[in-house]
From TrEMBL:
Record-level Gene Ontology MF annotations: DNA binding; sigma factor activity
Family: Belongs to the sigma-70 factor family. ECF subfamily.
Organism name: Lysinibacillus irui
UniProt name for this protein: Sigma-70 family RNA polymerase sigma factor
GO biological process: DNA-templated transcription initiation
Amino acid sequence: MDEQALVKRAIAGDEQAFLCLIQNHEQTLYRIAFAYLRNEHDAVEAVQETTYRSLKKIHTLKEVAYFGTWLVRILLNICYDMREKRLRVDLQENVEMGDHSQDHQRFEMTEIIAKLPKAQQELIFLKYFHDLQNKEIAALHNIPEGTVKSRLHTALSKLKHYFMEKGEH
């Protein structure tokens, strides 16, 4: 049975069809989550949460052809939230631990990227931390490839500006 037929059955409430869909996308979801979170435990947790949220909200899916994109969007939102929570914890731990130059550099990079709007942070992550091609990012966001290029250019310009500001102090 093709994926679109399974999606239609899942939307109609067929849990076996939904389970089959999740199994088909599980490895992709895990790889993206692991690349984003850099932690096996967190990646598994993100995939589990994606499964739960997508099961609850499958009735809101408008285009059955974009089921995979819809799943990845849910996963990226969860990963983003998890990373934000972890950054807050890292910030508290860094304050308590004192000055460690390696942690400090990582924190500075994370801090500067965190100044970007959420959409630009995600773009930087997908392009430079997950090595996705512009074409793949465009498909994921359902936007033209040229838009990805211009948004990347804007994000990189802002990052350059932030780094230059940081260097002046």
